[in-house]
Amino acid sequence: MRRTVTVGLILNGLAFMLIGFLSSAPWGTDSVSNSNPAFAGAPLLFLFGILSVVSSAVLYEVLPDRRR
Hints:
mainly alpha, rod-shaped
């Protein structure tokens, strides 16, 4: 179970990072004044993705392993 939860948390974090990065990167802008993120929370979404991936290691260690 802990492997499934950890992999799910990593994949969600990577998706958040990808969406946050692509939304906040100034793709195809012609000046600095047009280089604002697509939505205001895009950098925060990127940071939430990083936090999610890093916290997955803590969650992996805290969850009990399946006894055989």
